[in-house]
Design brief:
Helix 1 runs parallel beside helix 2 and helix 3 runs parallel beside helix 4. The protein has one domain: NAD(P)-binding Rossmann-like Domain (Rossmann fold). The relative contact order is 0.15. A 4-stranded parallel sheet has the order 3-2-1-4, sandwiched between helices. The radius of gyration is 17 Å and the shape is globular. It contains 4 helices and 4 strands; from the N terminus they run βαβαβαβα. The chain is an alpha/beta fold. Helix content is about 35%, strand content about 10%.
Length: about 170
């Protein structure tokens, strides 16, 4: 296995075990490097962004960078409360007002309620980042159950439709 070089930003060691999905970043031994390293310019001042899957990884980085640019940020996540708290604190440190919302984005009623909560809290919505996703790697396609496939599509595909449908009148 190759060791990281100075230009690498994250190092993920190989493992034979797949973590339970979705994962909790707070439980990882090797934490991803996500902290932004540039000064913001205020390009999103007065705007509101909703970022799904913002409790960790790419979603966290996007939420914090939007906050750095002046946006208020709504953080949607499934159940990773410790990870979401870290994202909230990082966004607040950048000066953002933050709304945390835990729930299943595969549920259209939850998506509608989430958009309503963002509008109620911030008075509008300017940016929707559909980042939430889950994956369940399997060795063989015959190992994938119908329930697993349905769950993956609910989160990765249908949630995007539900959120765009609910958010569209406000964008």
């Amino acid at each position: 296995m190759n060791q990281p070089t100075e230009t690498d930003t994250a190092f993920v060691p190989e493992t034979s075990e797949e973590p339970r999905m979705p994962g909790h970043e707070t439980q990882l031994d090797d934490k991803p490097q996500w902290q932004p390293r540039y000064p913001g310019s205020g390009r999103l001042k007065g705007k509101t962004a909703l970022v799904t899957g913002a409790d960790s990884g790419i979603g966290r980085a996007v939420a914090v960078l939007f906050a750095r640019e002046g946006a208020n940020v709504a953080i949607a996540y499934l159940e990773e409360h410790d990870d979401a708290r870290i994202t909230r604190e990082a966004c607040e440190k950048e000066g953002a007002q933050v709304l945390l919302s835990a729930g299943d984005l595969g549920d259209p009623d939850h998506c509608k309620g989430l958009i309503d909560a963002v509008i109620d809290r911030f008075g509008g919505l300017d940016v929707l980042v559909n980042n939430a996703g889950e994956q369940h790697p399997d060795e063989d396609v015959t190992d994938i159950t119908a329930q697993q496939l349905q769950r993956t599509f609910q989160t990765n595909i249908f949630s995007q439709f539900y959120l765009v449908q609910a958010a569209r009148p406000h964008l």
